Amino acid sequence: MSDKPPAWASAPEVHPGATAQMKLAALCVQSVLLGVFVALVLAMFYLFTRRSTAGPSTGKIPKAERLLLSALVILLVMNTGHWICTVVRAFEAFVFWLDGQHPAAYYGWMTGTIRVAQAAFHSGTVVAADMMVITRLYVIWDYRRSVAVAPGVLSLVALLVSAIGTTYAYGAYNADSPSTLVSLQHWRIAHSVLTIWYGMLVP
Predict the structure, then answer these.
(1) Rounded CA gap, 140 and 115, in Å?
(2) Domain that holds residue 182
């Protein structure tokens, strides 16, 4: 995969200017939401640690709560990685790429190492969140494996396959090869449908 943009990407008329404006607005919203998420994670750590030390136990955090905190750390890493990639792409679009003259064309160019990493972090966030849901579902339903495995784990496997396929499709995308764009769109649709369906299936 090459980070060199295709020749058509330098044409300002290829993509509307609103695309870059929406990406910039999305970065602002994502930054605020990430700050809220970080504050919630820190609050969870504080509350769990305080409760464990105040209780009559040995001062250790229970296993179930340790798993929850570990999952929150994984989500924090994934979300932060995605946000960093978004910030890097914003600097490339508005400052470095073609001297920042055509940010909309840059965002229309869907390849590059940073874009692949961004897709990987996004997919990792979805998969990690669904794994948390399955774990909580398993506990709520009194550790009944049938509830967690079918349909929870089976749906998660399908989601994981679509996440890997989407990330690979971003890496294999070539603006000069229409078939790679078709493949990318198919993987993105599959990943989106499975994400929505999984959210409806495991409330």
Answers:
(1) 38
(2) 111-203
